[in-house]
Amino acid sequence: MSMVRLTRTAMGQAMTTSIDRDHAALYRLMTWLSPSYPIGGYSYSHGIEWAVEAGTINDAATAQGWISSLMEYGGGYGDAVLLSVAYDAAAAGDRDALIDVAELAGALPPSAELALETTAQGDAFMKITCAAWRCSGLDMLRNEWDGPVALPVALGAAAAGHAIAKTATLTCYLHAFAANLMSAALRTIPLGQTDGQRIMAALEPIIHASARRAQGETLCSFGTASLRADIASMTHETQQTRLFRS
Q1: What is the pLDDT of residue 6?
Q2: I want to staple 25 with a disulfide (CB 3.0 to 4.6 A). Which of 63, 68, 164, 244 is the partner?
Q3: CATH architecture for the domain at 59-236
Q4: Would you give the DSSP letter of residue 109?
Q5: Rounded-to-integer distance, Cα 147 and Cα 67, Å
Q6: What is the C-alpha to C-alpha distance for residues 145 and 158, in angstroms, rounded to an integer?
Q7: Phi/psi class of residue 208: alpha, beta or left (left: φ > 0; alpha: ψ in -120 to 50)?
Q8: Which helix (H) or strand (E) element contains residue 93?
Q9: Which helix or strand (DSSP H or E) is residue 152 part of?
Q10: 3-state secondary structure 161-210
Q11: Could you give the CA distance from residue 164 to residue 28 in angstroms, rounded to a whole number?
Q12: Are 151 and 118 in contact (CB under 8 A)?
């Protein structure tokens, strides 16, 4: 076989391996972040239910503004930073860094309901994913941290353990976060399905920008500023009629 044919064969095998790896990564992200993944994401509104009750969110424009703020400045962006740091710690096998981010993620939620939202989903994600998609990142997190696990930390460790690209993981996580909030808005305002998809289309550049920005942050440098959403979550705890757990 000629050198040219050998080179082409090697290149073809490398391309096939790369494509297979990309397909595997996409399949796993789609599975883990699907609404059907049994972690109960549909039961949380992140304070949107109260905001609708109070009249702060009452149409597509106000729903889009609320969710956009969370993606840029609030819980969505904060989760992206935690995910990024957890990913790096798990990829590097850095036990201390992984414990630090797991501990901080459990302490950051400003209300009992937001703490429940992230840790109930995170613990469920750990249990299910360790059983079906076990990897070194999840084993390390489970062995080194015995407290509740926030969802973005669990996902970051899983993605690192499966060698899934961090940018793709962040983008998919933020998309799933926004889609869940959009679904809560659809059910409570209510909005039409077309309005919901217009919101998701408008959020695309914001989500991409937040995913990129989160990768440059550290646990000491980032912060969030979504006081209205934090208050909404606190007030939701005593709301008389509720569809959602947060």
Answers
A1: 43
A2: 164
A3: Orthogonal Bundle (1.10)
A4: -
A5: 29
A6: 15
A7: alpha
A8: none
A9: helix 151-161
A10: HCCCCHHHHHHHHHHHHHHHHHHHHHHHCCCCHHHHHHHHHHHHHHHHHH
A11: 9
A12: yes
| Residue 110 burial by Cβ neighbours in a 10 Å radius (0-12, 13-18, 19+) | middle
- Provide the sign of the torsion angle of the four alpha carbons 74, 76, 79, 83, taken in this order: negative
- How far is residue 20's CA from residue 1's CA, in Å, rounded to a whole number? 26
231: helix, strand or coil = helix
Q: Can you read off the two tokens belonging to residue 18?
A: 């790369």
Say if CB 67 and CB 203 are below 8 A apart.
yes
Least confident of 5-19, 96-110, 199-213, 227-241: 5-19
How buried is residue 156: exposed, middle or buried, by Cβ count under 10 Å (0-12/13-18/19+)? buried
Is residue 143 within 8 A of residue 136, CB to CB? The reply is no
- Give me the amino acid identity at 152: P
Say how far apart CA 159 and CA 162 lie, in whole Å.
Answer: 5
Question: Which two tokens mark 211?
Answer: 């995913």
pLDDT tens, position by position, 121-168: 999 999 999 999 999 999 999 999 999 999 999 999 999 999 999 999
Structure tokens at 142: 């489970």
User: Reduced to 3 states, what is the DSSP secondary structure of residue 114?
Assistant: helix
Q: For residue 50, report the phi and psi dihedrals to the nearest 5 degrees.
A: -70, -40
Crossing angle for the helix pair 193-214 and 75-92, nearest 10 degrees?
A: 50
- Contact indicator for 80, 152 with CB cutoff of 8 Å: yes
What's the predicted TM-score (pTM) here?
0.92
Tell which residue, 51, 145, 37, has the closest CA to residue 96.
Answer: 145
